[in-house]
Design brief:
about 350 residues, two-stranded antiparallel ribbon
């Protein structure tokens, strides 16, 4: 034969380690695959941790919430206890000699020690100063922040309960029921919140009950609209149509298929409702139809501080800074949470920019 024959190996001479059952993976590789896989919420948490502003806001909010709800334990004085001889004392922080934080205030072009004029003992310090009745502003700020946060968390709970339930039921039911529910929602949103509070005052006294009822009547309406719009979009998806074809009830479809897929939008909207509720309570208390004096809240502290702002500016700056920090932290956290749960929204925003 003129053709050269190439030597070839017989199949039975191939090493056995090159052959293994399909799908069989070594134990170490299985661990690596499992470690590299992320669920939806794990992936969202990973993206959230990369957002430094969101992480910083979480730390700030955690500290604020712990301090506010620990007020009965850490407040140095009774927030409503009056001590008129110690009225309008500026902040005095031990170890700090900076004017304005060492018990001195400017009077006639000179810095005067108000603690010495009031015969305050050297071991008595008011870190945030006192108001016109001698009440400790640190204690009032702690208790006031707790009240404002409580109202805000109640507003978020209303969003998650009434708003989500109303929007889900309206969209899943459809037809005439949906139309009637939407007309009712338009009526509620057309009434200003301030008018609702004034109407509440005709039945209830000014305080937390009036504010919560006003929020309960209208604050959940934006959440209901968002949930309804998202539910109408998901109703046309193939997996929802397949579940309906298999005979699954509307209630079960809403809980098993629709609600989990809109949970990210719901959580983000609830987070944005918290700073709105804080500002709403602050505004109502500032104009005198919210929390009742002498109960402290951020709004009542601002109401008392702006009256003497030109003389004792610290009485307004302290609650104003607390309000700004809380509002900014909640908004930054909500923005970071929105980007983590829905990264496509962030990409679309960057593309528009």
């Amino acid at each position: 034969m003129n053709e050269r024959t190439l030597p070839c190996e017989r199949p039975d001479t191939l090493p056995d380690e090159l052959f293994r059952l399909r799908g069989a993976v070594p134990a170490d590789e299985v661990g690596a695959v499992r470690a590299s896989s992320f669920g939806f919420f794990q992936d969202a948490w990973r993206r959230l941790r990369r957002n430094k502003a969101a992480v910083g806001s979480i730390i700030v909010l955690t500290v604020v919430v712990i301090l506010a709800y620990s007020a009965p334990l850490i407040a140095p004085y009774n927030p409503n206890m009056q001590n008129v001889p110690y009225a309008n004392l500026p902040p005095r922080i031990p170890g700090i000699s900076v004017n304005g934080m060492n018990g001195k205030i400017p009077m006639r072009g000179q810095w005067v020690d108000r603690y010495a004029l009031a015969n305050v003992p050297d071991d008595v310090h008011y870190l945030f100063g006192t108001d016109e009745f001698g009440r400790d502003l640190l204690s009032r700020a702690l208790y006031g922040t707790r009240i404002s946060l409580t109202i805000a968390f109640i507003a978020a709970l209303l969003d998650l309960s009434i708003g989500v339930s109303f929007g889900l039921f309206s969209a899943m039911r459809g037809g005439a029921v949906d139309s009637i529910m939407q007309r009712l929602l338009e009526i509620l949103t057309g009434i200003p919140s301030l008018v609702l509070v004034v109407l509440m005052l005709l039945v209830f006294k000014p305080g937390m009950v009036s504010i919560v009822l006003a929020l309960a009547m209208s604050a959940w309406a934006p959440m209901a609209r968002i949930v309804r719009a998202q539910t109408l979009r998901l109703k046309r998806m193939e997996y929802v149509l397949a579940a309906r074809a298999l005979g699954m009830s509307r209630f079960r479809i809403a809980l098993s298929h629709v609600l989990p897929n809109i949970s990210g939008t719901v959580v983000v909207r609830a987070m944005f409702s918290i700073p709105y509720a804080i500002f709403f309570e602050t505004f109502l208390s500032f104009i005198g139809v919210g929390m009742r004096i002498p109960n402290a809240s951020i709004g009542t502290l601002l109401n008392g501080g702006y009256k003497v702002f030109r003389i004792y500016s610290y009485q307004m700056w302290i609650p104003a800074v607390i309000l700004c920090v809380i509002m900014l932290a909640f908004n930054l956290f909500a923005d970071g949470l929105r980007d983590a749960l829905d990264p496509k929204m962030k990409e679309q925003g960057d593309a528009h920019e």
